[in-house]
Structures are given as C-alpha cells and as structure tokens.
C-alpha cells in the first residue's frame, strides 16, 4: 500500500474518531480505539487491504492489456483438464497450491511446473489464519513447504492466504520467508458452482491489469467437483483474447 494512501487512512481514522466522539457519549480515547479496532478488523478480512505491508493486487505493471489467471486450492483431478485447456490456448497461469493436495496429487503438481506455470503457496490445511497465532501459522506453512519439497516443486516466492484473510503473524511469517502476499481483483465464485455460463459472464468482466481468481480444488476437501470451472475456462480465455488481453503469471 503506498505511503500516501496510508496517510489518508490515518487521517480518515482520526476524523471517524472525532465524528463518533461528537455524536455519542463515548470519550475521545474510546472513540479512537473503536475506530482503530474496526480498521484492523477490515485489514484482517479484506484481502486487498495491506496496511502493514505490501501485496500484489494487480498486474498493471506488465504492460497494456495484461491480465492474470490464477487458480487456488489445487491440485485435484480437475487440474489435469485445466492444464489441457491452458496448453491448447497457449496461456500461462499461476497456481496457489495447498500442501495437503500436493501430497494427494504429486504428479499433477509436477505437471503444473513442467508445463511452465507459476506455483505459489496457499498453506497446508486451508485453515483461515486471521484468528490463529504464530505457532499455528508457522507450522502450517512449514508443512506446506515440506509437501512442495517432496513433490520436487520449485515455487515462486509468493503466497495467497486461505480465503485471503490474515493477521499480524501471517504477514510477519510471509515476510520472514521472503514471500510476497498476493490478492486478486476479480473473484467469480466458481467455488460455489453457480453454472458454467455465470462463471464465464463474471470472468469476462475482467478489466485491464486485473487478477482473476478461479479454483481447481475445493479447500482441503478430497472430493472435488470443478467440472464447471474446467468447462468455463476455454470460453473465458477465448473471450478475453477477443478483448485483446494478454496473459501473464504473477511472478
Ligand atoms: Zn483457497
């Protein structure tokens, strides 16, 4: 987050605290505390807010018309179908893999790497980190890294936290491991299986520089149905190509 934006947020917090103070019986200190707590909560649950660090929010620096397609929660048996589409369309994507699913499907994970896509970390168990302490997060990321290592993966130094939620410990863990935190610009809720055409329509609203979030897995679940995402993908890529977009990976 740019320094200018951070200064604006601090001013906004001060103003919000003054407003609460002026229009309620709460003291000025309590108003300020309430406002700061509210802001910190937004920081935890909103992936695009990164007051205490930086994060990759878009790919606007990759030239005009660049967009990025990213997949979370894999690998699963559906990843193979998705890789076929990407190969046929000559598109490189980024996969944020889950340690537990890499253990289940090491050969598919290796195929992602061999076909030139970028791999990033998504944790081991898909547990949300925002109410977890340092010990849990440290252990979860260690297990993820170990699973990647035994599958022979060579991930890029990027992480997307499960559900995008975070806290101070998660951000510090990422920093200690020299991992850049990645967010996304457009989620299309393919995870909820709303139907192929809805996934396609929502994805084609992608704007220049935006990062699209799709799913080739379903959290830590072993039984996965990503048939809709796999079926939507050729139409999404063809539609984006028609709009003259080019595809880039996050690293
Ligand atoms: Zn996920």
List keywords for this structure.
251 residues, alpha/beta, TIM Barrel, 2 domains, six-stranded parallel sheet, three-stranded parallel sheet, 9 helices, 12% strand, globular, binds zinc ion
Secondary-structure map:
Blueprint: H1 3-23, H2 28-45, E1 55-56, E2 66-72, H3 77-89, E3 94-97, H4 99-104, H5 106-114, E4 118-121, H6 134-150, E5 158-159, H7 168-176, E6 180-182, E7 186-187, H8 196-203, E8 211-215, H9 227-242, E9 246-247
Parallel strand pairs: 1-6, 2-3, 2-8, 2-9, 3-4, 5-6, 7-8
Helix pairs in contact: 1-2, 3-9, 8-9
Zinc ion is lined by residues 72-73, 122, 126, 162.
Quick recap of the structure?
This protein has 251 residues and is of the alpha/beta class. It has helices at residues 3-23, 28-45, 77-89, 99-104, 106-114, 134-150, 168-176, 196-203, 227-242, and strands spanning 55-56, 66-72, 94-97, 118-121, 158-159, 180-182, 186-187, 211-215, 246-247. The chain contains 9 helices and 9 strands.
By DSSP (H or I, 4+ residues per run), the number of helices equals 9
The top-level CATH class of the largest domain is Alpha Beta
List the secondary-structure elements in sequence, H or E.
HHEEHEHHEHEHEEHEHE
What gross morphology would you assign? globular
What compounds are bound to the protein? zinc ion
Protein structure class:
alpha/beta
Q: Which ranges are low-confidence, i.e. pLDDT below 50, for 5 or more consecutive residues?
A: none
What average pLDDT do the residues reach? 93
Please name the CATH topology of the largest domain: TIM Barrel
Q: Please estimate the helix content.
A: 40-55%
Quickly count the domains.
2
């Amino acid at each position: 987050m740019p320094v200018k934006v951070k200064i604006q947020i601090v001013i906004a917090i001060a103003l919000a605290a003054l407003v609460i103070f002026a229009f309620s019986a709460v003291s000025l200190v309590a108003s300020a505390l309430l406002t700061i707590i509210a802001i910190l909560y937004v920081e935890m649950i909103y992936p695009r807010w990164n007051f205490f660090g930086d994060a990759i929010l878009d790919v606007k620096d990759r030239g005009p018309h660049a967009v990025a397609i990213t997949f979370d929660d894999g690998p699963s048996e559906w990843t193979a179908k998705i890789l076929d589409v990407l190969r046929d369309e000559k598109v490189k994507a980024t996969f944020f893999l889950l340690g537990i699913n890499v253990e289940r499907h090491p050969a598919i994970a290796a195929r992602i790497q061999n076909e030139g896509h970028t791999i990033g970390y998504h944790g081991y168990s898909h547990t949300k980190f925002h109410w977890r302490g340092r010990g849990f997060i440290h252990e979860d990321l260690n297990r993820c890294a170990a699973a990647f290592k035994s599958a022979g993966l060579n991930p890029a130094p990027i992480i997307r936290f499960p559900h995008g939620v975070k806290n101070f410990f998660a951000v510090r863990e990422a920093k200690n491991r020299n991992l850049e935190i990645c967010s996304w610009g457009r989620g299309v809720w393919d995870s909820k299986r709303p139907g192929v055409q809805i996934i396609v329509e929502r994805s084609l609203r992608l704007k220049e520089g935006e990062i699209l979030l799709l799913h080739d897995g379903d959290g830590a679940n072993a039984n996965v149905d990503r048939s809709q995402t796999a079926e939507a993908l050729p139409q999404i890529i063809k539609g984006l190509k028609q709009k003259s977009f080019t595809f880039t990976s996050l690293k």
